[in-house]
Design a protein that fits this description.
Length: about 240
Amino acid sequence: MNSFIIFLIFVTISLSSAIKLPASFKRCKSNDMTCLKDAIQDALPKLKDGLKDLGVPSLSPLVIPKMTIGAGNIVKLVQNYENSKCYGLSDSIVKEVSLDMDKGKLVIDVEGKLAEMNASYTINGKILILDVYGSGECMIRIEGLKGQFTLDLETYIKNNNKYLKGTNADLVLHCEQATFQFDNLFDGNKQLGDNINKVLNDNWKQIYEELSPAYMKSIAISLLNLTNKLFSKIPIQDMFLN
Ligand SMILES: *[C@@H]1O[C@H](CO)[C@@H](O)[C@H](O)[C@H]1NC(C)=O
Ligand SMILES: *[C@@H]1O[C@H](CO)[C@@H](O)[C@H](O)[C@H]1NC(C)=O
């Protein structure tokens, strides 16, 4: 083989095996939590619209194709949501980051002013003692957020490079206020619909406490999906400075 062909093969292999983190992303040593906190804070708005070249979907809206929430004690109905769009996560303030590569754990403490989810819903069941059914568009808004995103990590080798992979994700978000709006309840009977929305909003605290673990699990799984798209493209050696 002549040297030009060897050169071409070499270039092809290096291109396919080592996509770099976009230059605008800050890089840190994996044990430098102060740097990581700034780097993640800096990355959030850059992830807002996603990274087309790397196949990373948008962080805001974060799209959840399908979500089913089981019946609880107050909200005794199964809720099916489709095409949920969550806005606001890219505006989060990163308060603290802890990354333990040996234990495979990333924990990010966040705060935020506001997050909103718009979705198509279908529900049928009871809220407290009231019969409720309907399908249409809905909006859930939370304000004054404080919480934690946790990611379990493992590493694997691909084409002689080591990569990170998230195996599980959890999200806990407490809020100071939640607002619910379900349009078109009772096939569009406005009076009955307004009444149910008022019940939901008058009891937002208990309702949010009951429903949020299931909402947050769905959001966490979408965040895991997004993170893994990024992790699968960038070898660990190119993600961190050490
Ligand atoms: C979400 O729904 C609310 C209430 O219907 C609406 O005011 C808002 O504009 C929607 N947001 C987006 C981004 O579509
Ligand atoms: C994972 O992300 C891809 C886009 O990169 C999207 O098409 C898919 O629906 C996502 N899956 C979930 C469960 O969010």
